[in-house]
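User: Some background: our group keeps a shared notebook of sequences we're curious about, and every so often someone picks one and asks for a predicted structure to add to the entry. Today it's my turn. The entry only has the sequence so far, pasted here. Could you supply the structure so I can complete it?
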Amino acid sequence: MGIYEKDFHVRYFDLGEKNTLSITGLMSLLQEIAGMHSSYVGYGLNDIEKTNLTWYLLYWKIKILKKPIWNTKLHIKTWARKLEKVSSFRDFEVYDENKDKIAIASSKWALWNVRTNSISRIPESMNDEYGVIESSVFDDKTDGKIKIPEDGICSYEYTIRRRDIDTNHHVNNLYYLDFALQSLPEKIYYNTDFTEIEVLYKKQIKINEKIKCFYTNEDNGTNTVVIKSEDEKTVHAVVKLK
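Assistant: Of course. Here's the predicted structure to add to the notebook entry:
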């Protein structure tokens, strides 16, 4: 299969307040085409009853080069870059209607068996089914890890509601970013044009659980939010924005 590619348009609910594609909107499109690719090779949402397998997200790294406006036609390419024993890496390139590259991204996923409710080993046959291409959009070939700050100010607390839950019965991947953005100081949120984003998912959050978000601003201009459980003993996710 190799590269899977498809055209999209920037939808109204993909926009930020400046009428440009938001970080959340971009991540939504990337997540959508990743699902489409898996569906094409027989491991999509509609195939779970047959395969008992689904992919869940472990990590995002995204670099935005240009932010398109509403209704801009986008061409997105994605491919499986590397398949390991229990996890895989997937990369993305996003182009606008002028064929300018506007974003690149890398992600890490794990294969989950819904019948045993446990991580599943990735069969060797998937290398051929996905057509693995060992080409990384980032020079450093990111390994899907983020250093977690030890300090931080608790800047946001939230109780998970029904609307936050997805088909896997835990908080939707995109909402972790929303929690992080909500945690930022207003002067950072409204005056910073974020172009580099990393999200590390550590432990899923379920309905009615309470979370606390701890904010840190690093010397290099990176804003880090650590999402923890109410008792602060569990790290659910780490989000870095720059």
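Suggested note for the entry: The CA atoms of residues 147 and 238 lie 9 Å apart. The domain at 4-130 is CATH 3.10.129.10 (Thiol Ester Dehydrase; Chain A).
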